[in-house]
Amino acid sequence: METLQRTRVMSGTRPTGRLHVGHLVGALGQWVELQSTSEVFFEIADIHAFTTGFEDPQHIRDSREELVLDWLAAGVDPLQATLFLQSGVPEISELHTLLSMIVPLSWLQRVPTFKDQIEALGADISTYGFLGYPLLQLCDIAVFRASKVPVGKDQLSHLELGREVVRRFNHLYGPTLVEPDAILSEFPAVPGTDGRKMSKSYHNTIDLADDEETTRKKIRSAVTDPKKVRRNDPGEPEICPVFALHHLCNDARVPWIRDHCRTGELGCVDCKTELAETMNAWLRPVRERRASFDRATIDRIITDGTDRARIIAADTVRDVKRAMKLL
Amino acid sequence: METLQRTRVMSGTRPTGRLHVGHLVGALGQWVELQSTSEVFFEIADIHAFTTGFEDPQHIRDSREELVLDWLAAGVDPLQATLFLQSGVPEISELHTLLSMIVPLSWLQRVPTFKDQIEALGADISTYGFLGYPLLQLCDIAVFRASKVPVGKDQLSHLELGREVVRRFNHLYGPTLVEPDAILSEFPAVPGTDGRKMSKSYHNTIDLADDEETTRKKIRSAVTDPKKVRRNDPGEPEICPVFALHHLCNDARVPWIRDHCRTGELGCVDCKTELAETMNAWLRPVRERRASFDRATIDRIITDGTDRARIIAADTVRDVKRAMKLL
User: Which site in A198, A218, A244, B246 is 20 to 30 Å from A133, CA atoms measured?
Assistant: First the structure.
C-alpha cells in the first residue's frame, strides 16, 4: 500500500505573553487551516524566549501553558498537530551546536533583524544566542525535516539564511537536511485600541484570554477619530481603529456603521458598545474552548507532543552526526 | 561513613592528528600524574575539531582512536580516568545552546585568541562556532562541575571567560554551576627537528606512533648548528635542537655531549645516531603499550567512558534547566 506523504510544516511561538485577536485572524487561523492538510509541528519556543527575556525565566515558564491554551482556544487540535516544547527536544540544541561549526559569522551578522533589534532594544540584547537566533530557528525546522514554514515578510531573511545553511551542510557532508520553503503569509493588519498595530509591546491588545468585561473596558477606552468630539460630529471611519475592528467580528454591519459614522448619526459610545458585544460574541466559543482544558490536560498534550517530536528529531540528528562522521 | 571527595579535573584534546614527544613531556605527563590524585575527565574534543577542520570530517574521525591510543601509550589509565567523546555527550551541546542566551557577544569578541587566530588562519575560520569556542570549552568543563582545569598561558583567557559565564549564570538563576580554577602549567619548550617549537603544524614532530626507523630518519634530517659544517668544526649546542632533545631521553650524557660538541670532537652524525637510539629506547615502553590495545578495546574504553560521562552531564543539565525554569 502506498502512503501519501503529507507536507511537513513547522512553526512556533515564543512564550512571552498572551495571544490576541491579531494572532487569531493571522498566524493562528493559518495554523488551524494547515493542520488539516499537512503534518504540522507547533513549537513553544522557550529557549528562543531567553534571547529577550533571560532575566525573567519565571515569566517564560508561566507563559508556556497560557500559550498552549491560546492555541487550543483558536482551534489547534492536538490530535492533528504535534505541540511540543523546544527545550524538551534537546536534539534541537545539539543540532544548533553542530551546525554552528559551519555557519560563517558574517551570514548571521548581516541578517537585517540582528542590527534592527539591537537598535530598537539596546545593546543588552546582543548575546551570543541572540546573534544565533536565525540558526536556532533553522534547527527548529531542520530537525523535523519540515519542507514548509509559514513566515511573515520580516522573517524571510531568517529563512533564507536557514536555506543557505542547509545547502552548505548538504554540500559539505552529503544530502541530509531538507531545504525549507516559505509559505509567505501577509495578514491584514489588525489595529490595536490605540490605532497602532495590535501588539503586546504596545499594550493595545484584546487578548483571547480576556474576560468579557475586560474586553468591554479596553474597547471603551479605545482611540477613535480625534476630530469626532461630540456625538453628532461627522467621523472618518477609515482612520478609526474601532471601525477597523468591526471588520473582524461584525462584518455585515460595516456598511451601515461607515455611513452613520460619516453623517454623525452614530456616536462613538454606541459604536464601541456594539463592537464590544459582537467582539465578545465572536470570541465566546474561543474563550469557552480555552476554559475547557485543565492544567493536567495541557501538561499531557505538551508531554505527548514533545515525546513525538523527539523521536523524529533524534532520527535527524543521528543522520546529521553520521554525515559528519561523528557516529 | 564519610566519603573523601576527590578534586574533579577536566581536560581534553582535539582529534586532529597524532601526539608527539612534546605532548608526552607536557600535558600528557601531567594527566598521568593527575589521574592518581584526582577524578579526571579527558575529552576527545571532536566537535571542537570542526572549528578548524569542518571540511575534512574523515580526518577527525580517523584521529579519534589514534588520539586515545596516544593517551593510553603515555600512561593514561582508563580505570582511573574517564575518557569520553565530546559528541557522544549531547548534554554539552545542549548546555552550549542554553548558555549562549546569557553570554554577551562582546565577551567572546574580545577573547584574544579569536582575533589572533583569524589573523593567523584567515577569515574562513570565522564561523559562529569558532566565535563560541571558549563557551563550548566552558560547557565541557561545567557539565562535569570540574573545579580544576590544566591550562597553558594562551588558554587562560578562555578559562577567565568561562568563569565569568558561570558567575553570570549563578547570579541570574541561583548557584548551580562550579567556577573552575586553572592549574596553570608551563612545560619546558620542546624543539622540533627544525629548531622551532615542536608542533604538528610545522611538520617537525617525533610522534608517539612513529616506528623506530621513522624516528631515526626524522632525527637524521634534523637541523643542527648551521656553523658546524664539518665533523671537527666546533658547535654551539645551545642553539641545536638535537642537543635539546638529548635532555628528554639521554640526560646523563648531556654534559659529555655538550663538551665534545663544543670542541668539535663529536660530529653531528654520531650525535644524531645516539639521540635516535636513546629516543627509541625511551619511547619503547610507550610504543609497546600503544601496540597492545586492539581496536575493539579502544572502542569499549570510549563507549564506557562516554556512558559514565553522560550520567554526570545529564545530572548537571537537569539542574541547569531547573534553575532556568525550563523543567
Answer: A198
